[in-house]
Amino acid sequence: MKLIECPRDAMQGWTEFIPTETKTEYLNALLRVGFDTLDFGSFVSPKAIPQLRDTAEVLAGLDLSSTRTKLLAIVANLRGAETALGYSEIQYIGFPLSVSETFQQRNTNKSIAEALTEVADMQNRCEQGGKTLVVYLSMGFGNPYGDPWNPAVLGEFTEKLAALGVRVVALSDTIGASTPETIIPPFRELIPAFPNIEFGAHLHTTPTTWREKVDAAFEAGCRRFDGALGGIGGCPMAADQLTGNMATENLVTYLEAAGVPTGLHMEAFREAQRLSQRVFVGH
Ligand SMILES: CC(C)(COP(=O)([O-])OP(=O)([O-])OC[C@H]1O[C@@H](n2cnc3c(N)ncnc32)[C@H](O)[C@@H]1OP(=O)([O-])[O-])[C@@H](O)C(=O)NCCC(=O)NCCSC(=O)C[C@@](C)(O)CC(=O)[O-]
């Protein structure tokens, strides 16, 4: 079981600037919890995401001396990927490839075709640089823009990514549109069809529908889950449809009830929760 904690997704749309030292303190607390991966920041345009303009400074303040957690940074173009490739501390580079043309444009100012060309370049650069590219299939469970969508589209995109050598694909419910009916089929079909790819669930949800979504993905074979403490966040480029992240607390509750070891240090987890309430003041 892999739990990916996404403070980047929690912070990126927070209106008040979170001071760099506060971010660093929070991320260091999360590094003590024992998550598989920390999606800690992004190297994107500071105009698009002003909150995360200090990702490089934050990274410099992280204490990685005694953590087993790997670092993931989100990028939205090749330039961001080159920045991330320059840091030996970062193992994963994440790129949002949308199955909705409208959202790809809104999020990265490029078409899906252009984004796929960038993914090919990023994959090559990651292979040369000893890093792993994680591709998020954003709006993977439907979109609010009227762009064509059906469950088979995830298979078509995965086919293209597999041909490029991509090894980690996170099916992403950017706006919380998924239901068990739309979650189960893709995981059931894609996991056995692409044995070289690790599939993750990056789900957004309301507080009332989280359990059925996690249950659907888990029962369909998913063993890689993204979450954010407190269920905070979401993509500002879909702000009109903003739905919070899957709360990590709920993922842990679910897994504990299912008897699945999370490997988390629970005292450190509670400490990070307390800190999260101070970081996201007013939440
Ligand atoms: C991709 C661009 C840059 C295209 O935006 P653009 O306007 O086409 O880019 P540009 O190349 O014309 O550059 C515009 C400005 O950004 C700067 N710039 C350009 N690139 C960089 C860079 N790498 N690092 C630092 N600065 C950069 C560049 O220097 C320039 O600055 P100016 O000259 O105007 O002062 C823009 O659309 C962008 O940054 N988008 C960010 C998108 C983003 O971060 N979204 C949230 C994360 S993805 C997400 O949340 C979804 C996910 C992963 O959680 C899964 C899910 O739920 O779906």
Describe the structure.
The structure is a single chain. The chain has 283 residues and is α/β, with parallel strands linked by helices. The protein has a single domain, classed as Alpha-Beta Barrel (TIM Barrel). The chain is built from 11 helices and 8 strands. The chain has an 8-stranded parallel β-sheet. The longest helix has 18 residues, at 112-129.
Distinct small-molecule ligands in the complex: 3-hydroxy-3-methylglutaryl-coenzyme A
Please write the CATH class name.
Answer: Alpha Beta
User: What's the number of helices?
Assistant: 11
Principal-axis shape: globular
**Beta-strand fraction estimate:** 15-25%
- Structural class by sheet pairing and helices: alpha/beta
- The succession of helices and strands, N to C, reads EHHEHEHEHHEHEHEHEHH
CATH superfamily: Aldolase class I
Query: Mean of the pLDDT scores?
Result: 96
Gross CATH architecture? Alpha-Beta Barrel
Rounded radius of gyration (Å) = 17 Å
CATH topology: TIM Barrel
Give the biggest sheet.
8 strands, parallel
Q: How many domain modules?
A: 1
- Ranges with pLDDT <50 over ≥5 residues? none
